[in-house]
Amino acid sequence: MSKKSDNLFKQIYKWYKNIMATDEQQKAAMNVKAHRVTINDVLYYVGRAQVSDIKEILDVERAVYDGQTPWNEKAFASELRRKSDRLYLVVRKNDRMVAFIGSSYSRGAKDLHVTNIAVLPEWQRKGIATFLLNTIIHKATKIDAKQVSLEVRASNEKAQKTYASLGFESHGVQAGYYFGDHEDAIDMVLPLKEKE
């Protein structure tokens, strides 16, 4: 083997080893064991969403979105089967789902994107959404993401304030983004500090 091909082999091996380490790091960071958590002095159960949770996830969507389900069963099933680059969490109280959050990771963009978040109306303003967002932000730092991003309805000022309180900044508008009513979406991004 020539010195040139030996160097090339070493570079390829180093690249492969780095990819494998990154995959393992990402897999570990995206893993969530079911556990209990206290949010504002109330005890909840938090766990990774399973395909068997889809019916309840859709029920939460209907309660939040006036009987509509922006995502259908097939879309959620597809997302929940992708364990390495998707993270969906559910929050339960007394075995009833009260909230969920979904996210997808783009390694190329180093972006952990919040795909959806919903809290049953009677459980809103109890810190659950903030807890879920902070969990996703923490996971993003573990996989060395550069940012966390999301879209929010232009009319949803309450959610925008919550996101802004966590450091999210407005990064433009997507006209007619939402299916059905074609409402505009505001792109919001939380830049993450790079590890030194």
TrEMBL record:
Keyword Cytoplasm: yes
The entry's keywords: Acyltransferase, Cytoplasm, Transferase
Pfam family, one: Acetyltransf_1
GO MF annotation list: N-acetyltransferase activity
Residue span, N-acetyltransferase domain: 44-193
Matches recorded under InterPro entries: AcTrfase_RimI/Ard1, Acyl_CoA_acyltransferase, GNAT_dom, YpeA/RimI_acetyltransf
Gene3D superfamilies membership: 3.40.630.30
Keyword Ligase in annotation: no
PANTHER family: ACETYLTRANSFERASE, ACETYLTRANSFERASE YPEA
NCBIfam families (alphabetical): rimI
Similarity annotation: Belongs to the acetyltransferase family. RimI subfamily.
Protein name as it appears in the record: Ribosomal-protein-alanine N-acetyltransferase
Gene source species: Periweissella cryptocerci
Gene designation: rimI
